[in-house]
Amino acid sequence: MPHSLWQGALSFGLVTVPISLHAATDSGPAVSFVRVHKADGGRVRNQPVCSLEDEAEVPTEEIGRGYVTGERVVPLTDDDLAQLPLPTAKTLTILAFVPAGDIDPLQVERGYYVAPNGPAANKPYVLLRDAMDDHGSVAIGKIALRSKETLALVRPMGDVLVLHALRWPDQVRTPAGVVPDRPVDISEDELAAAEELMASYGPLDEEDLRDHYREQVEEIVAAKLENREVEAPGKAPQPRGQVLDLMAALEDSVRAARSARGEDADGTDASVTPLRAIEDKVTGTTKRSSPRKSARTPKEAGGKKTAAKAPAKKTAAKKKATGGRRAG
Q1: Rounded distance, CA 113 to CA 3, Å?
Q2: Which pTM does this prediction carry?
Q3: Half-sphere exposure of residue 79: CA atoms within 13 angstroms, side-chain side
Q4: What is the arithmetic mean of pLDDT over 282-289?
Q5: What is the pLDDT of residues 148-171, one digit of tens each?
Q6: What pLDDT is stored for residue 97 in this prediction?
Q7: 3-state helix/strand/coil string of the chain
Q8: How far apart are CA 165 and CA 152, in angstroms?
Q9: Closest Cα partner for 165 from 96, 111, 105, 102?
Q10: In angstroms, rounded to a whole number, what is the distance separating the alpha carbons of residues 112 and 40?
Q11: pLDDT given at position 242
């Protein structure tokens, strides 16, 4: 088993599951640059210096923590922080089970694999995993990671449970000032054309999942080390100018997408609805105001997504039909 980053217990109700957390993602390889002195290529480093003394570097053992409040910095010692009540230091406490769709993706941060810690943990681990999978739920809890308490999302992913650190709700900014500032009318034809364009994309190509920028940077570095000419990569496609005829742009995009996949750009399945309505019906085109669904007030929508609402329990009939719980 890989090295664990955290060991403790997952607690829901009176059930306690010994667990460990393991990194689920890798930060590299990726393009990463350092600062250099242009004159001689030497690295420019950040040196830890005290703002109240001279420019001499401060030794690591003399560097502590401080909390900034207003214009003052209040030093805090390890003993100060050790006195804080932190029940989640060794326990991932589940607070609620909610539908997965209730989680705002803006809150989701780094992911970890959750592993049962010891043979006795296997059964409650599998029970929790299968119960959430059957119920279509995810768990919201609290855990202390890197000396800080944070919200956590626990979800089943195949045979394993995955934990995601979550941002606190007040860390997500409001979208004020970035939404369209005036009403927009969308016709039924334009909406149908946009949906057909979406369908024309086809499945995701594995080639698109490669970091081509990193590969080209590595080629430039290799060429410089070998003292050879750098082969110039092809130019990236430039964005087109302002779209004047949205419908024509959508139609051209569909044809281009089909052509890129080797399909007939003009002939498709006869069951597919034409993109543009017949000319004699254009004057009767129905308009739709964007967004598609009528806006609801926060009160009507139930406010911000919350972890308080749990999904309905599975009925006994469904349990009987599926043979009850899966064996761990």
Answers
A1: 11
A2: 0.62
A3: 0
A4: 41
A5: 888 999 999 999 999 999 999 999
A6: 95
A7: CCCCCEEEEEEECCEEEEEEEEECCCCCCCCCCCCECCCCCCECCCCCECCCCCCCECCHHHCCEEEEECCEEEEECHHHHHCCCCHHHCEEEEEEEEEHHHCCHHHEEEEEEEEECCHHHHHHHHHHHHHHHHHCEEEEEEEEECCEEEEEEEEEECCEEEEEEECCHHHCCCCCCCCCCCCEEEEHHHHHHHHHHHHHCCCCCHHHHCCHHHHHHHHHHHHHHCCCCCCCCCCCCCCCCCCCCHHHHHHHHHHHHHHHCCCCCCCCCCCCCCCCCCHHHHHHCCEEEECCCCCCCHHHHCCCCCCCCCCCCCCHHHHHHHCCCCCC
A8: 5
A9: 111
A10: 42
A11: 58
Mean predicted confidence (pLDDT) in 298-323: 40
Amino acid 294: pLDDT: 38
Contact of 264 with 272, CB cutoff 8 Å: no
Written as six digits, the tokens of 142 are 């609290």
Burial zone of 133 (CB within 10 Å; 0-12 exposed, 13-18 middle, 19+ buried): middle
194: which residues sit within 8 A by CB, 6+ positions away? 250
Contact in structure between 147 and 78 (CB atoms under 8 Å) = no
d(Cα 8, Cα 88) in Å, to the nearest integer?
A: 9
Tell me the two tokens of residue 155. Answer: 């979800």
Nearest of 136, 101, 141, 134 to residue 19 by alpha carbon: 141
How much is the average pLDDT of 253-265? 74
CA dist., res. 305 & res. 326, Å (int) = 31
User: CB under 8 Å, gap of 24 or more: what pairs does 179-182 form?
Assistant: 180/290
To which residue do tokens 């690591």 refer? 60
Token pair in block for residue 41: 């290529």
